Amino acid sequence: MLKLQKTQALESAIKATEAAKSQAKQLEEANSGNLAGTDGAWKQDLETARAQYVNVITELNAAKQELQKIRQDCDASLQAKVTAFKQAAEAEDAAKANAERVTELSKEISAVQESIGQVKLASLEAQQEQAKIFAEKDVLRQSYKATLEESTKKLLSLKKEFRSRTFWKS
After folding, report:
1. C-alpha 132: how far from its chain's center?
2. Angle between helices 2-32 and 39-169 (to 10 degrees)
3. How many Å separate Cα 65 from the centre of its chain?
4. Phi then psi dihedrals of residue 36, to 5 deg
5. What is the pLDDT of residues 100-133, one digit of tens each?
6. What are the percentages of helix, strand and coil residues in the chain, rounded to 5?
7. How confident is the model at residue 17 (pLDDT cuts 50, 70, 90)?
8. With bands split at pLDDT 50, 70 and 90, how would you rate the model's confidence at 143?
9. What local confidence, expressed as pLDDT, does residue 105 receive?
10. Which residues form a coiled coil (predicted)?
11. What is the pTM of this model?
12. What distance in Å separates the CA atoms of residue 16 and residue 54, rounded to the nearest whole number?
């Protein structure tokens, strides 16, 4: 909005300058034939036109400076916008890279958790197998113990029988 007003002010100053130039030319042309009789009025009109011309030129220069300032502000704003877009793009790239890294880490964590689960399962199976082996050994030990006791009883019985036979024979 401000830019539009300043541009319009510049255009107005340019038009006023052109009008002052045109008026000065007209006065010169009109008074070039009447120099002898109206020398004082002509000079007065010329001075007025020159003063208007100087005022218009001053306004035009001020408008040009203002326009230059607007251009500089616009350039600075554009540069800030470009910088902001670059930063936004960099932030977006960083966010994508971080998201990819999160995905990779999540996969690694899942793989480690799966490995832990497999190790726990293998450990549980090994414990169950060990318990089964211990149970089988215990059964075998009990069986061997019973067999040993039975064999010991038989041996004692045979010894008694042998002693009694040898005792009777002698």
Report:
1. 57
2. 160
3. 41
4. -70, -45
5. 999 999 999 999 999 999 999 999 999 999 999 9
6. 95, 0, 5
7. confident
8. very high
9. 98
10. 10-108
11. 0.45
12. 11
Pick from 14, 5, 8: nearest CA to 60: 14
Task: Report the Cα–Cα distance between both ends of the chain, in Å, rounded.
Answer: 144
Amino acid at 140: L
Q: Is 1 helix (H, G, I), strand (E, B) or coil?
A: coil
- Alpha-carbon span 95 to 89, nearest angstrom: 10
On whether the CB atoms of residues 96 and 40 are closer than 8 A, the answer is no
Predicted confidence (pLDDT) per residue in 47-100, tens digit: 888 888 888 888 888 888 988 998 999 999 999 999 999 999 999 999 999 999
Please name the residues in contact with 80: beta carbons below 8 A apart, sequence gap of 6 or more.
none
Residues near 28 by beta carbon (within 8 Å), at least 6 away in sequence: 46
Lookup: tokens for 31: 């008074």
* Structure token pair of residue 41: 């009025």
Residues 63 and 17: their CA atoms lie apart, in Å, by 12
Quick one: average pLDDT of 3-9? 71
CA distance 126 to 121: 8
Kindly state the tokens that stand for 75: 């350039």
Tokens 């293998």 belong to 122
- Residue 81 to residue 89: CA distance in whole angstroms: 12
Are 70 and 6 in contact by the 8 Å Cβ rule? The answer is yes
